Amino acid sequence: MEHSIALVTGATSGLGHAAARLLAAEGWHEIIVTGRALAGAQQAAAQLAAETKAKVIFTPLALDLDKPSSVQSALAELVKQGRPIDFLLLNAGMVPGKKRMLTAAGVEASQAPLIGHHQLTVGLLSANLLSPNARIVIAGAEPARGDVPMFSLTDVTALAAKRHQGNRTAAIEALLHNGPNVKYQANRAYADAKLIIAWWVAALARRLPSGMAVYAVSPGAATDTKVVRNAGWALKLLFIPIAKLIPGMDQTPETAARRYIQASGFGTDVSGQFFASAPKKFSGPIESMRHPHLHDRTNQEAAWQAVVKVSGVDFVPVKPASPSVPPITKGPGG
Ligand SMILES: NC(=O)c1ccc[n+]([C@@H]2O[C@H](COP(=O)([O-])OP(=O)(O)OC[C@H]3O[C@@H](n4cnc5c(N)ncnc54)[C@H](OP(=O)(O)O)[C@@H]3O)[C@@H](O)[C@H]2O)c1
Fold it and tell me: Among the four residues 80, 188, 194, 270, which has the most C-beta atoms within 10 Å?
């Protein structure tokens, strides 16, 4: 891929910031860095420019994934710039806290980044603002494998059978909203959010134009970021300190972010796959995950439909004559 324009969400700290720095070192010409507010994105852009001293343009962009109106404004700005993006790095995300948080649109806080990322991605595709060979990487996480202590997954098929007359789209919608009939448990919400991301990626891959590709990539454990700032004491005072003591269980943010960059060079043949540390590991080389629950096509399509319903946007792969921003038809609180 020609190293031209990349967009990194959540670049104000942690892995997004590290990824933007790595992309600059790799010779990308322009890196669009997002923060919830323009001031944060501007600060990140200035800091990156000072850190890298490279001849790269860091363009700040306001993008609050909790707010459809913010996604819409970001899309309008990108349409105005009118330059297709070659690498879309959907990195923003968070581990939720003990108290359940919902966005104004009623989406559980750790699920909200996927809704905003979906609106952004579909908006860019519909406006013809992804280059023909674009790569899309979205942050996954090892808990989606279902083998991480303290992070159990919801059995969507069982939830659908018990509460939604077998309708898996409705069950996944309930997870996105954390209700009705979903008991809030922070680590489970996070694990479910990353599982839905893995399913969404598989469904998006089936809809992308042939030259493009999308992957879910877990950066792996990198505890020197702000990702668990809202998390409960068990994770902060037990899980992470123990993980840090075990050799090979923690990585620097740069090492973790390098996984995203590695995936940007993957081919269309592995589009739709979820790459993470080897089963039961949290660092080291990434590989494509083979766990059967990740490859359940019915759940992949149900996840896509649930995200479409909650976000208010679907992807209709028809190229418009000229760049334009498709409206987000639903999404109160934006
Ligand atoms: N660090 C790890 O061990 C690890 C492991 C596996 C996966 N991950 C994933 O890696 C990604 C990056 O995490 P990190 O460790 O770099 O955490 P971080 O230091 O907290 O950075 C997260 C970034 O995402 C932004 N963000 C979060 N929610 C957002 C929203 N709704 N709208 C807009 N921006 C939002 C944050 O902005 P604000 O500061 O304004 O909230 C921040 O810029 C996440 O998706 C995380 O789940 C991390």
Answer: 194
